[in-house]
Amino acid sequence: MTSNKPYFMRALYEWILDNNCTPYIVVDATLPFVEVPEQFITEGKIILNILPSATHNLYLGDEWITFSARFSGVSEEINIPIGAVVAIYAQENGEGMGFETEALPEDYFDETIIKIPSKTTHHKPQLNIIETEIDSAEQEEIKKAPIASKEKSIKDTRSTSQKKEDPKKNKKPTLTIIK
């Protein structure tokens, strides 16, 4: 069964916003893969305002919280594994919920690496066998009298190609002089 922590996070986030309060999250910045501005970490933790107007491209996913925000006027990309979130609460009244933290396994990214085909890999051109629209009776005829059928097929090809050509295209262009 998957973790219920991201679901509680999203529900509390919506609840805090619906009550016109400011959602804050407390993050354990000592855990691996937490990417936050180090100068704002206090005692191994950082408190982040995740109000929509304070963040850009906020994503509260099942495994990650990501967004960008300005810290002292400098834009920073924030990436936090859900397991590193200690609490979410409303800044105005402290209402919210605390969570146990858990670190992502060290090989987390080894399992999630997606192999992308190399651009240098080229497939050589191949020839494919294309079946003709000749029925079995005609195939037998070709096997029995290959020369006669070849002549017949050449004649058939010529007659069909002549039918498809537009007779106006074969005429040479003419120039008429008007005095």
UniProtKB/TrEMBL annotation:
The keyword Iron does not apply. InterPro entries: SspB, SspB-like_sf. It comes from the Bacteria. The keyword Acetylation does not apply. Residues 140-168 have a biased composition (Basic and acidic residues). PANTHER family: STRINGENT STARVATION PROTEIN B (PTHR37486). This is ClpXP protease specificity-enhancing factor. The lineage of its organism: Bacteria, Pseudomonadati, Pseudomonadota, Gammaproteobacteria, Cardiobacteriales.
